[in-house]
Each structure stands twice: as structure tokens, then as C-alpha cells.
Task: inverse folding
């Protein structure tokens, strides 16, 4: 009877001690690695290539990505005939799985805050793993406001900004109050001729 | 003479082993952020993290998971052995070893989970234990942008199975007294009274 009790006690101790000691022994040269696998280190360092590793911490994907919110790419385009306004955003899917870019909307304003119109993304875009995609947010600017600004602004370029930028990427909602969005060039000529940028 | 079996212990042992087998493939609790941008599969048996599509485990947690796998296995097997011989003198030791383990696992898992969520809340990130919530990251983390995401925390089937196994283990412990006392009574009624030998 006592033998059973002793055997069970020994079993309890062995079950706890053996795996922990074995794991510590396996990482005896790198004890920090016990709590900080390479993938986590890379995440803390802002992404990059972690390389492959053996053992229980091995990963399905060898690297952790730099995850960045969409960045403005290039200058906005404006068609004075139709009032159509397009603004390109650049987004790289850093994941090893496809990601959906569900929503983008913003208010286009001048430097002094005058509203020119709204832009949004016409449809959901799926971006394959690792791919870079230019997302065009488009909308119509108020022609009267643009013409008025063109009449006032003889310098040629109209600096614009985006207010209340809302982005939904991969289920994460990002709201940015204000982004300087570049300029619509040669504004004087745009009031009379289509196709300007 | 019919063999005594602690049927509740037998069920407890079987459910414990089933809960262990399922837990190897399914987490007890899962946290998902956005469209699986971040996924945490938590369980005393198999905990792993998915951050931006990369799966990994923490080696120390992996070792603790292995401890729980062995503990659960031993608990389930010894509970089964006990159930078949509940009247043996050593049965109480077998029961004492096996019935507590699932209880410890479930309680410690819930406590650790609650502590982690409380710590996250302390840093302004309020994660749901069971259900969905829109979590907004503190502005100091996001350089002026407001970043929020739908976060879902859900207990899954293996957790509920482990709770059932725990309840059955405790019930088996309580039922053991009934099995023992029933045996004592039957022994006392079937044992012939000792009488003085008479000689002719």
C-alpha cells in the first residue's frame, strides 16, 4: 500500500521535473530563448528575416513582417471635366495569408480646411501574401469649390490634405485625423482643360 | 461475488483521456484579432501564437504543456485503473492521485488567463474573456492614429470537456465513500457469525 503511494508521488514529481529540466538543458546555451523565441525577437525588432529554427518553437513561416498602414503613393489625380478625383495608396501584405482591404474613406480638404469632397474605395480588394498593391481611392470633388480655388490661387499648385481617414485592413480599423496629401498641380489650367494631375 | 466498479470514476477516466486527445488539436481558449492577424490558441496542453501569419510557441510554455499532457494522461489512466478496483486497499491512493489533476489544470488555466487579461487591461487593452469586443489601442502606441479591431475570445469544446472531466473526477471521489461503505456493509452481512466450536 505504501509502495503505491510512494510510486505515485515519484511519478508526480517526475512528470513535472523531467520535461522542465530537459527543456532547460536543451536551451542551456541560450536560456533567454526559453521565453523569447526567434519569431518574437524579430517582431520586437520590427520584423525581418528570422531564419528557420528547429524544435518546438519552429514556425510555419520563416519571417515576421513589418506591418504598416497604407501609405500615400504619388500625387493625386483630378479630372476637371468630370470632377473625378483619384488618390493612390500603397499597401504591402506582409502576411503569409491573403488579406482583404475592405474600406478606405477620407475627406479631401485644402490647406485651410475647406472641404472639396470625399473619396472612398469602390470595392474590397484581396491582396495575396507578400504582394504589393496600389489602392486607388476615388471620388468626385465639388467643381464649384475647385474653380473658386483655382481663381483665387494663381500660384498653380493647390496643396490638399485628407481629413478623417478611415481604413479597414484585415479587420483592423485605423483612423487618422489628418494626412498631408500632396498637391494638385497646374490648377489654373485645370479649370479650363481636362486631364490634369 | 460481483465485482465492484466505480462507474463514475470509469466515466471520469474516459472523459479525461478524450479531453486530452481533443486538446492536442483544439485550444481551450482562442483569441482572434481582426481577420486572424493575431491568433492566440491557449490551452494547458497546446499553447501557440499566430502573429501576422507566423505560428510559434514559447519553449518554456511548450515544456509546461508537456507536463500537463503527462499529468492528464497519468490521471486518466490511473482513474481508469482505480475504477476497476475501487475496493482494493491501495485504491484510495490511486483515486487521490488522479481526481485532483484535472481540477488543478482547469483552475490554474482560468486563473492564469484571468491574470493575463487583467494585466492587458492595466495597459489599456481590454480583451474579452468570452465574446467579442472592439478593442482600441492606446494612442501612445499608435503615433496619433486610432487603431481598433474586433477581438474575439472564446472558450472551446476541450475546455468544457475538461470541466466535465473535473466534475466527474470530484463526483467519483465522493462516490468512493459510497462504494467503500456498501462493500463494508455487504461484508458484514455475508460474514457468518463467529460461534464457539462445539464438540460432541
Result:
Amino acid at each position: 500500500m505504501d509502495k503505491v503511494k510512494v510510486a505515485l508521488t515519484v511519478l508526480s514529481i517526475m512528470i513535472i521535473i523531467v520535461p522542465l529540466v530537459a527543456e532547460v538543458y536543451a536551451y542551456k546555451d541560450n536560456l533567454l530563448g526559453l521565453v523569447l523565441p526567434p519569431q518574437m525577437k524579430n517582431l520586437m525588432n520590427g520584423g525581418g528575416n528570422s531564419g528557420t529554427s528547429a524544435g518546438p518553437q519552429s514556425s510555419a513561416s520563416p519571417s515576421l513582417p513589418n506591418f504598416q498602414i497604407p501609405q500615400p503613393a504619388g500625387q493625386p489625380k483630378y479630372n476637371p471635366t468630370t470632377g473625378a478625383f483619384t488618390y493612390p495608396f500603397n499597401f504591402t501584405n506582409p502576411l503569409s495569408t491573403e488579406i482583404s482591404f475592405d474600406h478606405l474613406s477620407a475627406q479631401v480638404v485644402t490647406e485651410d480646411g475647406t472641404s472639396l469632397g470625399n473619396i472612398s474605395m469602390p470595392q474590397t480588394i484581396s491582396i495575396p501574401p507578400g504582394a504589393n498593391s496600389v489602392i486607388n481611392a476615388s471620388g468626385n470633388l465639388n467643381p464649384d469649390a475647385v474653380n473658386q480655388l483655382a481663381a483665387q490661387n494663381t500660384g498653380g499648385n493647390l496643396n490638399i490634405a485628407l481629413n478623417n481617414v478611415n481604413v479597414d485592413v484585415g479587420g483592423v480599423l485605423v483612423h487618422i485625423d489628418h494626412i498631408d496629401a500632396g498637391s494638385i498641380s497646374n490648377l489654373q489650367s485645370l479649370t479650363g482643360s481636362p486631364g490634369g494631375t | 461475488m460481483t465485482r465492484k466498479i466505480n462507474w463514475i470514476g470509469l466515466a471520469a477516466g474516459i472523459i479525461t483521456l478524450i479531453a486530452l486527445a481533443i486538446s492536442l488539436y483544439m485550444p481551450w481558449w482562442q483569441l482572434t484579432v481582426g481577420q486572424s492577424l493575431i491568433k492566440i490558441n491557449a490551452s494547458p496542453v497546446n499553447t501557440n501564437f499566430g502573429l501576422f501569419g507566423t505560428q510559434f510557441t514559447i519553449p518554456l510554455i511548450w515544456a509546461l504543456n508537456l507536463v500537463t499532457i503527462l499529468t492528464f494522461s497519468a490521471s486518466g489512466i490511473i482513474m481508469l485503473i482505480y475504477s476497476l478496483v475501487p475496493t482494493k486497499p491501495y485504491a484510495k491512493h490511486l483515486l487521490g492521485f488522479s481526481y485532483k489533476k484535472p481540477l488543478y489544470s482547469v483552475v490554474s488555466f482560468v486563473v492564469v488567463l484571468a491574470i493575463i487579461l487583467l494585466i492587458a487591461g492595466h495597459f489599456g487593452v481590454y480583451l474579452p474573456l468570452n465574446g467579442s469586443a472592439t478593442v482600441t489601442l492606446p494612442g501612445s502606441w499608435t503615433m496619433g492614429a486610432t487603431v481598433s479591431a474586433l477581438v474575439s475570445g472564446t472558450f472551446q469544446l476541450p475546455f468544457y470537456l475538461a470541466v466535465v472531466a473535473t466534475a466527474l473526477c470530484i463526483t467519483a471521489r465522493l462516490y468512493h465513500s459510497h462504494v467503500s461503505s456498501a462493500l463494508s456493509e455487504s461484508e458484514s452481512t455475508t460474514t457468518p457469525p463467529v460461534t464457539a466450536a462445539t464438540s460432541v
